[in-house]
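Researcher: First entry.
Model:
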Amino acid sequence: MANPSKKKISKVVKGKNIIITGASSGIGERTAFLLSECGAHVILLARTEEKLKVVKENIEVLGGKASYYPCDLTDMDDIEKTSKLIQEDFDSIDVLVNNAGRSIRRSVHESVNRFHDFERTMDINYFGAVKIILAFLHGMIECKTGQIVNISSIGVLANSPRFGAYVASKSALDAFSRCLAAEVKGDNITITNIFMPLVRTPMIAPTKLYRYMPALMPNEAAMMVAKAIVKKPNSIASGMGKFASATYSLAPAINVGIQSIGYRIFPSSSAAQTTDTKPTLAQRAFARILPGEHH
């Protein structure tokens, strides 16, 4: 599925109201710039007002339209309050991009005394995303049009070790979205899950080893979001993501074996955060064979 031209993106998003969560940096920020450049009015949500204000001002300097609403996307009451403010200010929401998220790289046995790892990822990656979907779903159904784009992870397809908490929360959103897609198809509403590979954003910065690993740039990830809005598929995944999913469906033992190798040759979370040495030959080979897999 080739990337659409900016002319094609503009044809689809011009004049549309598009909410982007996690819009103060990384994928969300780049997506906001791209869609506003193509004529959308982007509605920016994130926790830090100062950062949102800078993104909004930079978009407007470039001639785009943007509004921002500070919101703690782990606080269900704050999401409800913010959603009502947006509904008061906008007649309709055409697209909701659920991008905000939290990733934790830690093996399960390292989390036996850290149940909060699982709570934190579920709070923002699942409950927060579902809460904001529910807030705007009725309006989309009334208008008989709309799209919800969820930024998921290749880990959902590949069952990445050391990401049990993160992948479980993203998998929950994926399952919810697949059920919802069938319910709202008759209302002309599309649900699209993007199984994003590793992207070079502030989220991965604490793990120094990632500096040497293959990763998409935020602009490339933003183009994937634009492609989702233009093409409206049920899902977007890399070739490696599709391969990983197929191997687990057809030969799960092979999938588990491959992931086990990756688990053993890459360092634990604490070591990966502190080491500044380049990957070994085995690590580089594994990263080339499974690009986007962040063990």
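Researcher: Second entry.
Model:
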Amino acid sequence: MNDSAKTVLKVRKAAKFFGTRLVFKGISCDVSAGEILLVVGRNGAGKTTLLKIMAGLSRPSSGRAELIAAPEKSAYLGHATFLYPRLSALGNLNFWASMYGLSPSRDGLMDLLRRVGLERAAEEKAGSFSRGMAQRLNLARVFLIEPELIFLDEPGTGLDQSSLKLLRDEIAGFRERGSAIVWISHDVRHDCGLADRVLGLASGRMEYLGPASEFDPVAVLGGSVC
């Protein structure tokens, strides 16, 4: 990460309550272009809640999250693929392109499908896809907008090794092209190596924010998650 890189996201003293239950409080961080920030914590620590607040999909109970990257240049990739099962792979991409106000050619869309290894399934309905194929198509949807900021909520869950490798290669490629990535991983042990920094959530607060190379899960979170 370049220290002079453009800041694309700012979070200041963000807190979230569900009723009277505290999820977390006092979360502050910046995310810069070309940076991968890995968000870690045990189940129930509030990782997905924080990611949604960062992405503007949920409001904090107090504090703020400011998207500096343009909303149309931000992408969210999570457990749910948001694909239309009765549409083909091409049909899904055409639909999402129209939602973004884009009009790519069929050849352009086929190039995206080829990039994720789905060119032979271009006319197949998405409802027949395996988990790995569906997530590959979802990744192609992200490619449509060449995002400046990408939010990833355990996108590798349930993927086979081939799809996982594709996902990790593309994450590294996004960073090389200057995109910022905020990433909740289902396999922190392996994915720490791709990250620049780690934000560790525990006991309702931010227990760590620093270099991934210095992150100690036992000292920070009281257990091995890496």
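Model: Note on the second entry: The chain has a mean pLDDT of 92.
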